[in-house]
Structure formats: structure tokens, C-alpha cells
Amino acid sequence: MSAIPDYILSHFKRSSKTIGEAERRILEVAHQRKLISTDTNAAFSKGSSFGERLADSIARVGGSWGFIISFMVFLAVWAVINTVVLASEAFDPYPFVFLNLILSMLAAIQAPIIMMSQNRQATRDRFEAEKDYEVNLKSELEVLSLHEKIDSKVLAELAALREDIAKLHRRVAGEGKD
Asked: For residues 140 and 111, what is the distance between their CA atoms, to the nearest angstrom?
């Protein structure tokens, strides 16, 4: 860490001892000129369990228009079969008590699965925000480093120009005395 230039640490407006772990890690990566950007989807999915992936799939299907439309068709077919087709021998006559039981069980199972998926999405959002912060911080450090290099080069060139101007001024002043 001591090899990291003080001008970079000074941009945090804190001492190097009070810089957080993320900032310290990014400073080290920036100093080593390593890439920090990663595929957050692959990195996040790598650590997911079968249950988490299943919850995501169920939420993806359960929250789609295809599911909603197909479920509405299923409900309409159920009602038609039990009221019109099997009018006298319906297996679930109106008010469709068995259908209500099935819907209640489906809702009781689907709701916690969707909540698990939402919690996982919130975790994914935090993970992506952390990665974005790291990439943004490294970018800022690189830009500040470039500014510092350019400023020092420009100042050196200005000093050289100033010296050349002084030499020319002395030469012109020397020729004017003749």
C-alpha cells in the first residue's frame, strides 16, 4: 500500500488509515493497473443455489402475461365445464369450492416463492451497485492520475518555455545594447 502515490490518497480527503476496505482494494487494483469490471450476472449467478434459481424461474413465469392469460383461460374452462357441460354431474358445482381451495393453495405457495425471488433481486441490486461503485471509483482515480500526469507535463513544458523566453529576452536585450 505504501507504493500507492500520496496524490491519489489525498483525493479521498482522508488519511490512508481511514479509507474503507473497498477504497483500499480499488486503490491497490488501480496501482497495479488491473481491470476491475466483471460480468455481474455471471458473478452473482455463480453462487446461487438450486432453490434460488428455481424461485427466480417460478417468479419469472408467475409474473408473466403468458401465465396470467393461460390461467384466465384455465379458470374460464373450469367454470364452463362445471356449469354448462357437466350441468347435472359437475365435479365442482357453483360456487366452485374445490377451485377456491386450489387457488388458495397456489397463492399460499406462490407468494413466498415470489418474495424469495424479490429478496434475491434486492441482493443482486446491492451486488451490482457495489460493482458499479468500484468501477466508478477506479475510473475517477484513473482520471485524477491522468490529470496529475498531464498537469506535471504541462508545468514542465511551461517552465522550459519560460526559460526559452528568458534566454530570448536576454539575447534581444544584449543585441539592443550594440
From this structure: 43
